[in-house]
Amino acid sequence: MAKKKKKDIDSIIDALEELIRPSNIIKHLKTDDEFKQWAREGTIKDLESAIKLFEEDELYEHCKLLMDVIQEKRDRKKKKWTLK
Predict the structure, then answer these.
(1) Structural domain boundaries, residue 51
(2) Crossing angle for the helix pair 60-83 and 44-56, nearest 10 degrees?
(3) How many domains are contained in the chain?
(4) Rounded to whole angstroms, how far apart are CA atoms 57 and 17?
(5) For 17-50, what is each residue's pLDDT tens digit?
(6) Distance between CA atoms of residues 84 and 54, nearest Å
(7) Residue 47: which residues within 8 A CB-CB, separation 6 or more?
């Protein structure tokens, strides 16, 4: 029973890893705007981690889009501080 549970958990983990692989993400987010909208859901730390994964897959155009979203978030944060 324990081996079956371990095998089931391993197969779920494999499926999730496949789902979140950068090359699969961009298959579902067809335009740059869709990709940036998806990226805006993450924190700056999330996006910095994502950049590393996208670099490993040599998806440099998407790395640039992630960097653009990071800059948007930093600018927005800076603007909040200057308005107070």
Answers:
(1) 2-83
(2) 170
(3) 1
(4) 14
(5) 888 899 999 999 999 999 999 999 999 999 999 9
(6) 36
(7) 39, 66, 69, 70, 73
pTM above 0.85, yes or no: no
Distance of CA 78 to the CA centre of its chain: 23
Amino acid at 8: D
| Burial track 6-34 (b if 16+ CB lie within 10 A, e otherwise) | eeeeeeeeeeeeeeeebeebbeebeeeee
Taking alpha carbons only, the member of 44, 84, 5, 82 closest to residue 68 is 44
The residue type found at 82 is T
Structure tokens at 71: 């800059």
Q: Which amino acid is at 30?
A: K
